[in-house]
Design brief:
The complex is a heterodimer. Chain A is an all-alpha fold. Chain A has one domain: Orthogonal Bundle (ABC transporter involved in vitamin B12 uptake, BtuC). Helices cover 79% and strands 0% of the residues of chain A. Chain A contains 13 helices and no strands. In chain A, helix 8 packs antiparallel against helix 10. The longest helix of chain A is centred in the middle third of the chain and has 30 residues. Chain A is globular and about 55 Å long. The termini of chain A are far apart. By secondary structure, chain B is of the alpha/beta class. Chain B has 2 domains: 132 residues, Rossmann fold (3-Layer(aba) Sandwich), CATH 3.40.50.300; 61 residues, ABC transporter ATPase like fold (Up-down Bundle), CATH 1.20.1580. Chain B is built from 10 helices and 9 strands. Classes of the chains: A mainly alpha, B alpha/beta. Chains A and B meet through helix 8, helix 9 and helix 12 of A and loops of B.
């Protein structure tokens, strides 16, 4: 396990695991126009960290639980249709982030590197994080594999899916579980403020080359892996925070992908 | 009374040819104070085309959703023929270009149909050539034909079509209605559809239900277009097909009812 002892390789392995899950899951975030939904869930993660510290439970579990609670809250708000969606998202996003910072600053007895949580810190990735990422990642991917077709059907037209027997609400809830989980798993690598970018940017880059949903998912995963590699390498070489470096790498791939002439890849 | 077919209590007399596919009795749907559907009693029998017309917000799509079981009714009863196979074409979906779905993928989103079945279905609606095309590149008419082909895969006994000609140009409209009429014959299925387009629909429908939360009037097209309730909802000039044609793109005009 000497390989894993080295912090850089731990970060690479963890990041690759996250990217593999983020590709297929991120497709649905993009297709279902849920980027800000994911972002709002992610911003609640600091509150999850704070509560995890307070109750002395695994921080991953704290983040997962709070993100899920926010997702359910959003889900209920969206069904009410009284306030516009973006207002609800903005409110909850900032409220939870502020609550997270406040809670942590009130807990004078713990020293927390808030910057590390906000933007990612590869030095913080331990072996147990890798176990969590790959264990959790496999569960997420298996679930996503099983729900792939119903999710596609709902994305295409949720009422049609419902009329044809798809358990729409159940599938939607499972999807939120998966997003909450992937957020919890990726925070150490990429940070709370940037975590949804790994869900969105690689698949958006892959869209240009994709003729089927599956191609876009796999393409997104591959571009995600490349972004993690390039970003972490840059992070190591020029000593930049890991999260922003990965995001910039992903954005470079996004622009590179969009430099190709449009017609070539479409019918 | 212009109600040409009794809608309640006489289902005992129907032989198999007039087999009832779906029937409602005193159906209500309320949300809070508002009554979205009020005392709806209707039925659709085998091989019959029934068209729902009515102004925007009259509850046409809502009624279809209740009939399909997508939303529950507040009170009243719905009878469906046991194991009724329904093919549903929802109100036009917007397909985001970011979702790379081909036509043949759309066909198999919730079912497991063979290539052969899918090809047959696409042939029936005259769009075999579009099999591999990305859905977001389809024209309005092509898309509706894809959705219709999709609905046919179930070998439906009842087709429920929510504004089947939405987004279809005028020439395509009458062709699409003709296709629906032909499908009714070839599949021997009932058709329940919602339409804004009174003039074309009138030609290919057996019965018209005019809906405005409640059923204002119903019967054969010629009869309904002379009904005072119909004229109140759609304007006096709606009685003449030519006038409707000239207002084809202006639904608001029909809705206002200001001509009464």
């Amino acid at each position: 396990m000497t390989l894993l002892d080295d912090f850089f390789w731990r970060a690479i392995i963890a990041g690759v695991g996250v990217a593999i899950v983020a590709g297929p899951l991120g497709c649905f975030v993009v297709w279902r126009r849920m980027s800000y939904f994911g972002d709002t869930m992610a911003h609640s993660a600091l509150l999850g960290v704070a509560l995890g510290l307070f109750f002395q439970v695994n921080l991953l579990i704290g983040v997962f639980a709070v993100a899920l609670a926010v997702a359910l809250l959003l889900f209920l708000f969206q069904r009410q249709k009284q306030l516009p969606n973006d207002a609800v998202l903005g409110t909850l996003s900032h409220a939870t982030l502020a609550m997270g910072v406040l809670t942590i600053s009130l807990m004078a007895w713990v020293r927390v590197d808030i910057m590390g949580y906000l933007f990612g810190d590869i030095l913080a990735v331990g072996l147990h994080d890798i176990y969590w990422i790959y264990g959790g990642g496999i569960i997420i991917l298996l679930t996503l594999f099983r729900l792939w077709r119903p999710l596609l059907a709902i994305t295409f037209d949720d009422e049609l899916a419902k009329a044809e027997g798809v358990p729409v609400i159940g599938v939607q809830l499972a999807f939120m579980f998966m997003i909450a989980a992937v957020i919890a798993l990726s925070i150490k690598i990429i940070g709370i403020l940037l975590v949804t970018s790994l869900l969105i940017i690689p698949v958006s880059a892959a869209r240009r080359f994709s003729k089927s949903p599956e191609q876009m998912a796999i393409g997104g995963a591959l571009i995600g892996i490349a972004s993690v590699g390039l970003g972490l390498w840059a992070s190591l070489r020029i000593d930049t925070p890991s999260g922003p470096s990965i995001v910039i790498a992903a954005v470079l791939f996004f622009f590179a992908a969009n430099l190709f002439p449009l017609r070539k890849f479409q019918h | 009374m212009l109600t040409s077919v009794e809608t309640t209590d006489d289902n005992v007399d129907f032989d198999s040819k007039n087999e009832i596919l779906i029937q409602t009795q005193n159906l209500f749907l309320r949300t809070g104070e508002r009554e979205l559907l009020s005392d709806i009693s209707l039925k659709v029998s085998k091989a019959e085309i029934v068209t729902l017309i009515g102004p925007n917000g009259a509850g046409k799509s809502t009624l279809l959703r209740v009939l399909l079981g997508i939303i529950p009714s507040s009170s009243g009863s719905i009878y469906r023929k046991p194991k009724l196979r329904i093919g549903y074409l929802p109100q036009r979906t917007v397909v985001d270009p970011v979702l790379p779905l081909s036509v043949s993928r759309i066909m198999n989103l919730t079912g497991n149909y063979s290539k052969k079945q899918i090809e047959t279905s696409l042939e029936e609606t005259g769009i075999s050539a579009l099999k591999d095309k990305p859905v977001f590149q389809l024209s309005g008419g092509e898309f509706q034909r894809v959705m219709l082909a999709r609905a046919l895969l179930k070998n439906p006994e009842l087709l429920v079509l929510d504004e089947p000609v939405q987004g279809v140009d005028y020439m395509g409209e009458s062709e699409l209605f003709k296709l629906i009429e032909n499908l009714r014959k070839s599949h021997d299925c009932g058709v329940l559809m919602v339409s804004h387009d009174l003039h074309v629909v009138m030609a290919s429908t057996d019965r018209v239900l005019c809906l405005n939360q409640h059923i204002c009037c119903e019967g054969q097209p010629e009869v309904v277009t002379q009904h005072p309730e119909y004229l109140r909802l759609f304007g006096l000039d709606a009685g003449s097909a030519l006038a409707i044609y000239s207002h084809h793109h202006d639904h608001k005009h029909h809705i206002s009812g200001r001509l009464t």
